[in-house]
């Protein structure tokens, strides 16, 4: 497989970025949409049916962002807990919209059966810039670990610290986009002084299971539900999706805790990371949002039907 170094306008090929390169990268970022206009009013409209919890403040001067979660109104610590996270990568729009749509349209279906905690937009600064990283050129979804360098990740971990043992199921909503290949992977290689290995973007929906605690029946149930909404990504010629072997239709595996991924934040028995493909001609934005909602509902339904004691 070919590699290249002369691919990104910031930095010296083969040399990791210093603070100067990070500052040059930050200067290129532009605010393209509004967390205050798009996300906060949508959360506010749900206040009648949900408790709204402010679990921190993201501070990137001169801007600050309240970090908000939706919590079941009939919260009961004796019940298991379902966690839904969106917008860990701020540019992955259907994750934010899907989390909000689930809360608005289907949250009531689980009242009295399982507590729900929905965090629609973990990374509001990146949401506004349609970016993968935070303002320090750090990927929050590789930073869910002790002494996290990402404020977004640290705040979410603090919110969940007293709740981890209750979490039965966690659905983390993501997208794989064309800009992963055109911008974000080249930027990552440049930042780290590494060679860029060009890859391909899968056309369709897929899931990432936890390779250290796989739940194939759970993943299959989610894939089956989403297949009614949008198409499932096929394996490439190597039997892989984004460089990982396909272990079942539409499913790959990562060691989520070792990689510092959001899906590993609780150690829940049932975890999955959704990956929607929003850039193809075969899926509309509405289908992408609906796929996220279908994945959440299928995951919760399966977990409730197959409870595992923590």
The coarse silhouette is globular
Biggest sheet record: 8 strands, mixed
- Report how far apart the termini are: 43 Å
Order of helices and strands: HHHEEEHEHHEHEHEEEEH
The average pLDDT value, as a whole number, equals 96
- Class from secondary-structure proportions: alpha/beta
Assigned CATH architecture: 3-Layer(aba) Sandwich
* CATH level 1 name: Alpha Beta
Q: Which strand order spans the largest sheet, edge to edge or round the barrel? A: 1-2-4-3-5-10-6-9
Number of strands: 10
Question: Helical residue percent?
Answer: 25-40%
Number of helices: 9
CATH topology: Aminopeptidase
Q: Could you tell me the radius of gyration in angstroms? A: 19 Å
Unreliably modeled segments: none
Strand content: 15-25%
- The total tally of domains equals 1
Any idea what the CATH superfamily is called? Zn peptidases
SSE map:
Layout: H1 19-27, H2 35-38, H3 40-45, E1 50-60, E2 63-72, E3 81-86, H4 93-105, E4 115-119, H5 124-129, H6 151-160, E5 167-175, H7 178-192, E6 206-210, H8 216-226, E7 240-241, E8 244-245, E9 251-254, E10 270-276, H9 285-305
Parallel strand pairs: 3-4, 3-5, 5-10, 6-9
Antiparallel strand pairs: 1-2, 2-4, 6-10, 7-8
Could you provide a short overview of the structure?
With 310 residues, the chain is an alpha/beta fold. 31% of the residues lie in helices and 20% in strands.
């Amino acid at each position: 497989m070919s590699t290249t170094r002369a691919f990104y306008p910031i930095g010296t090929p083969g040399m990791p970025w210093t603070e100067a390169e990070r500052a040059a990268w930050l200067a290129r970022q532009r605010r393209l949409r509004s967390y205050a206009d798009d996300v906060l009013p949508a959360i506010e409209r749900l206040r009648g049916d949900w408790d709204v919890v402010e679990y921190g403040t993201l501070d990137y001067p001169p801007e600050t962002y309240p970090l908000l979660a939706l919590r079941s109104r009939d919260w009961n610590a004796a019940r298991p807990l379902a966690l839904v996270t969106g917008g860990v990568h701020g540019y992955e729009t259907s994750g934010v919209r899907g989390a909000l749509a689930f809360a608005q349209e289907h949250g009531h279906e689980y009242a009295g059966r399982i507590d729900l905690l929905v965090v629609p937009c973990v990374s509001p600064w990146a949401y506004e810039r349609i970016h993968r990283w935070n303002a320090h050129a750090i990927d929050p979804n590789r930073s869910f670990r002790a002494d996290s360098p990402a404020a977004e990740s640290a705040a979410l971990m603090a919110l969940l610290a007293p709740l981890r043992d209750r979490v039965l199921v966690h659905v983390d909503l993501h997208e794989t986009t064309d800009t992963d290949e055109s911008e974000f992977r080249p930027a990552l290689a440049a930042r780290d002084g590494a060679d860029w290995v060009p890859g391909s973007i899968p056309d369709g929906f897929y899931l990432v299971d936890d390779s250290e605690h796989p739940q194939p029946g759970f993943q299959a149930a989610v894939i089956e539900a989403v297949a009614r909404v949008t198409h499932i990504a096929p394996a490439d010629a190597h039997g892989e999706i984004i460089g990982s072997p396909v272990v079942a239709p539409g499913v790959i595996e990562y060691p989520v805790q070792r990689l510092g991924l959001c899906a590993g934040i609780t150690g829940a028995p049932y975890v999955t990371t959704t990956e929607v493909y929003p850039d193809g001609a075969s899926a509309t934005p509405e289908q992408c949002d609906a796929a996220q909602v279908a994945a959440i509902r299928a995951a919760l339904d399966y977990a409730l039907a197959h409870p595992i004691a923590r």
